[in-house]
Amino acid sequence: MGKILLLIIIGLVVYALIRNYQRSLDKPAASAREHAVEDMVKCAHCGVNLPRSEAIYSGGDFFCTPEHKQLGKK
Ligand SMILES: [Zn+2]
């Protein structure tokens, strides 16, 4: 009976260590994901939000599509 109890305790300790290890692995990944989030900019014509890298910059304003860039600021 004592052996079984010991095995259960060892099992729980190993389980706790694995959980701790996984949590320590998850943390840097989560912060890296936050850093990957780009700045959002607003289309000066329709007001839609889009990532800065996908926006078209013209004359101090951002636009979502070339059409809106041509239509200009509303
Ligand atoms: Zn737009």
Protein topology:
Blueprint: H1 2-36, E1 40-42, E2 49-51, E3 56-58, E4 61-63, H2 66-71
Antiparallel strand pairs: 1-2, 3-4
Bound molecules: zinc ion (ZN).
What does this structure look like?
By secondary structure, the protein is α+β, with helices and mostly antiparallel strands. It has 2 helices and 4 strands. The protein has 2 domains: 1-37; 38-74. The strands form 2 sheets. Strands 1-2 form a two-stranded antiparallel ribbon. It has a two-stranded antiparallel ribbon with strand order 3-4. The mean pLDDT is 88. Zinc ion is lined by residues 43, 45-46, 48, 63-65, 68.
Quick overview of this protein structure:
The protein contains two helices and four strands, in the order H-E-E-E-E-H. The chain is rod-shaped.
